[in-house]
Design goal:
Helix content is 33%, strand content 20%. The protein is an alpha+beta fold. It has one domain. Strands 1, 2, 3, 4, 5, 6, 7 and 8 form an eight-stranded mixed sheet that branches. The chain is globular. The structure holds zinc ion.
Length: 229
């Protein structure tokens, strides 16, 4: 919904000089840019949009500034159930702007599940959302998880039968997985990559850190201004 999208002004606090510091500056400058990017959104409009979409959540107190380590969620929400009835275990602790992408994310999940499993997903297991930590391979940059701007999706349970588990069924060395659950996971990854509102999708074929989950986030892609979704 337009109300929850980042305005071009909000996405570029400080113009070119801060763009430069985002791209080449130290990690404090980079964290500050990410914070500003999320904090500039209209929290009330975003939460109203979540309610309208049927997301079950509770609001966290808004934060005016990150904590001393540079972490925090500007407009946090704790999501227990998504718009298509998916229950999240553990609940998602995310910025509202990311929760606002759940209708599209769940449409991808349900579309792939219907195609390959013949039924819908009712429960999703996550490896975590908010976490104040650096990117593992990121030379000390803060992870999108440090701003509640990322979700790690690990397990998808349909209404009946066993769950599709990334570490178990993705079969990263196979061209095409030999089970419906594996093919569901591959198609889901594909569909997530096609979403405008998701910046990055990192899965088992990208690196070993992601062998057991799909990481999705809404990192601000300064090199694609106007297209950050
Ligand atoms: Zn992650």
């Amino acid at each position: 919904m337009a109300a929850c999208q980042v305005s071009p002004q909000g996405a570029r606090p400080g113009g070119l000089s801060s763009l430069f510091s985002y791209a080449f500056g130290d990690r404090a400058a980079r964290a500050e840019q990410q914070w500003q990017h999320l904090a500039s959104e209209d929290a009330a409009a975003c939460r109203a949009a979540l309610r309208a979409a049927g997301v079950r959540f509770r609001a966290m107190p808004d934060r005016a500034a990150p904590d001393p380590r540079g972490c925090g969620i500007p407009h946090g929400v704790v999501v227990t159930r998504g718009p298509t009835g998916i229950v999240y275990d553990a609940p998602l602790v995310v910025d509202c702007s990311l929760a606002r992408q759940l209708p599209a994310v769940e449409a991808a999940i349900q579309g792939a599940a219907t195609a390959h499993l013949g039924q819908r997903i009712t429960r999703v297991g996550t490896f975590g959302t908010f976490s104040c930590r650096p990117v593992r391979a990121g030379r000390g940059s803060l992870s999108e998880h440090a701003f509640g701007n990322a979700i790690d999706l690990a397990r998808f349970a349909p209404r009946r039968g066993p769950a599709a588990v990334v570490v178990q069924h993705y079969q990263r060395d196979a061209e095409v997985p030999d089970t419906p659950r594996g093919r569901f996971l591959r198609e889901l990854e594909q569909r997530l990559r096609g979403l405008d509102g998701v910046a990055h999708v990192i899965g088992p074929r990208q690196n070993d850190d992601h062998r057991d989950h799909f990481h999705i986030d809404r990192a601000w892609r300064w090199w694609r201004l106007g297209d950050e979704g």
